[in-house]
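Here's what a typical entry looks like (dTDP-4-dehydrorhamnose 3,5-epimerase):
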Amino acid sequence: MNMNVIETKIKGLLILEPRVFGDDRGWFMESFNQHNFEKALTERGLDVPQFVQDNHSFSQQGVLRGLHYQLDPHAQGKLVRVVQGRAWDVAVDIREGSETFGEWVGIELTGENHKQFWIPAGFAHGFVALEDNTQFLYKTTNYYSKESERSIVWNDAELNIAWPLDQSLTPLVSDKDKDSVGLADAIKQNNIFINVT
């Protein structure tokens, strides 16, 4: 297998490290291999998705996007990576009944480390760009659905996400994301996932 698979503290969230072949001319890697991806998931008893859409975003330093998710029947799993620049990526478990409900995992993704983050459906997702001109690619398991789109506010006190922000890095957040609700309100509005397998 041409990748290293790292399990996180939350079942289902995986960090994938593709094997990079480099010399003085540059480098080569398989950015995605369906067989290897399926093998990594099935060996861990996880569902194997089908990807239907690729998305590409471009962000300047400090841009913070999230925490986004879609409700069933349009829930999305995401395989995310950074191809240029640097971002800190986070996934929050919002599967009602999950042993890790409300917990999060964060990872730094860069154009140099080539790491990828597998985030199954049932997680809210967001990232902050740590450098200018950060390009973020992700494969999704479902199409975008405006009607199913939801978000949890990035700085929700209950989640207490340790975003790598200091006085030199002020988050730039869209008006839509600023209007997001906290996890407690999402629960009250039945805007979380109720089916955990």
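The two ends are 28 Å apart (CA to CA).

More examples are in the samples folder.
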